[in-house]
Amino acid sequence: MKKILILFSCVFSAIAANAQDVLVMMDASEVSVKVLTVGSNEIEYKKFDDQQGPTYRIPRSEVFIIKFENGTQEKITDFETKQSVSVVSKPADQRYAFIEQAKEESKGDIHKKNLYLTAQTYFGMAASENKNYDLFYAGLDTGLDVIFDYFPNLKASRGIAGSLGYNYKLYEISNLKASVKNFDIHCGYSLRSDDEGFYLRASLFLNIPLDTNLITGTGKVDGEANTLIGADLDLGWDFNWLTIGGRVGTSFNSQFDMGIYNRVPYYRFFIGVAF
């Protein structure tokens, strides 16, 4: 008799276990429930262990699959993946990995290509300070840049950026003018949400002087400038092939001597053509 009772107990437990519906969530967790209705926007259910309790509602977008008590399954959220793997037949870790992969594959490409080239010109103002002579002066800052943005993953908004450019600065100090021509090398980080729209570019750069002249009332005199290093930030907007924006940055001499010739802050407005 005792064995018969144990047998009936096991049978009833198995039946109870199979009589429940299971919600497989988007994070791969499973919830035992009694599904009441599957609507176009949400699913109504009761907790399996409290079927006399309140009715709960959950958006369809949070549910991946429903496993019903009769053994059938209904896919609620379509990941638009080409894989035909049965998620619910796998262990939890593999199920989670599948869902994460399906989410990634369902994303559309942010970029149409990996490499973008931009040719741009800019103009703005730069200031310079020479504490050795207690001088502070400002003037025109203009030039040309050829910029590349490379995105290894077409689905990712992050990439690397670099540029080569020509820079010209013209400072005025009472009756003295100083013109500096530079070669710029930038390397940094690029962030774009789309092929067209807002972008951000943060870079470190090397500013190599090509030619420096001091212009006085008596003529032109060759001058000398330091190689500078610095950092800047671009904020811009792409309109198909046209790009516009602004840049702020500062540089200091490559000897890191903040007390002699340093801190050349600047702001620029730029316009360019993207390829």
State the CATH architecture of the largest domain. Beta Barrel
The ordered H/E elements are: HEEEEEEHEEEEEEEEEE
Tell me the span between the first and last alpha carbons: 85 Å
- Broad shape: rod-shaped
Approximate strand percentage: over 45%
Count of alpha and pi helical runs: 2
Structural class: mainly beta
Summarize the entry for a quick read.
The protein is mainly beta and 275 residues long. 12% of the residues lie in helices and 57% in strands. The strands form two sheets. It has an eight-stranded antiparallel β-barrel with strand order 7-8-9-10-11-13-14-16.
What characteristics describe this protein?
mainly beta, Porin, 2 domains, 6-stranded antiparallel sheet, 2 helices
What does this structure look like?
With 275 residues, the chain is mostly beta strands. It folds into 2 domains: 87 residues, no CATH class; 160 residues, Beta Barrel (Porin), CATH 2.40.160. A hairpin with a 2-residue loop joins strand 11 and strand 12. Strands 7-8-9-10-11-13-14-16 form an 8-stranded antiparallel β-barrel. Strands 4-3-2-1-5-6 form a 6-stranded antiparallel β-sheet, with no helix packed on it. It contains 2 helices and 16 strands.
Q: How is the topology of this model organized?
A:
Layout: H1 2-18, E1 21-25, E2 30-38, E3 42-47, E4 56-59, E5 63-67, E6 73-75, H2 92-106, E7 115-130, E8 135-150, E9 158-173, E10 176-192, E11 197-216, E12 219-222, E13 228-239, E14 242-253, E15 261-262, E16 266-274
